[in-house]
# Entry
Amino acid sequence: MIMISVVTALALLALVTQAGIVAVQRAHPPQGRMIEVDGATLHVVDIGPRDSGVPIVMLHGASSNLEAMRRPLGDLLASDHRIILIDRPGHGWSTRARRQDSTPEIQARMVDEALGKLGIDRAVFVVHSWSGALGTRIALDHAGRVAGLVMLAPVTHPWRGGVGRYNEIIATPVIGPLLAYTVTLPLGYFVAEAGARSVFLPQTMPDGFVKDSATPLLLRPREFIANAYDLVTLKEAVAEQAPRYAEIVAPVTIIAGEPDKTVSTNIHARPFAAMVPNAKLIVLPDLGHMVQNAVPNLVKAEIETMIRQIVPAQAAAD
# Structure
């Protein structure tokens, strides 16, 4: 009887999950175009004037999608600049063929290929959190593509501890997918708001952020599993690439907060800035993890300062 009850409960949760997937996707449909690359289909939103000089590519962190970079920062920049927002492979409306394609190295290659198909030779990359590792990998492996790099609360170095037991379980074969296709979405509806709120501290999360940022897309099983793989493989990936950071030749600006409890500034931003020749570090005393939401005007000003410096340098080189 116990076994029958468990199986029945899982079957019901699986049905609820499938219904939830349909509802979430109807509420948050794709906003851009799909670009096929080797191993993935990337969802790309291209906004702003096309003839505005150096384009800006924005890459989101873990547990999110391109909407986390679009509002308010991307929309703010799009009044004067061409903005390319990309759902990382496996996130938002982007897919990837293999869950194991979770490392910054592989995703950097995919992003580089997509930009080539868009006809973008060089761009300023604006990266947040997990994508700190991705942005640095693009600057290392595809240096010709990177005119500049603006990093917001970036992950760059290995850290003590793990990434949460639940992520490790979800990335485990068999049991991970079983949980993802039954429990994760129904449970996530109850905890998503609180989880997002904690990432903003000490700032207050904007009203309607979870809906406006399409955060519920994360609760879909295939994306939740992809996100878990991204997180559990990240530590080893940054340990491998960190010794190369001195090779980065593009100008870099890092903006981070002292009280950030999600990504430690002392473990990541400060050591990274010390290694990179052309790095500018801005650390604010009351800034949490969601830099693009908390100080969008500052971020915009730093991006535009970088672009003003890049253009004369590029003209001189040509």
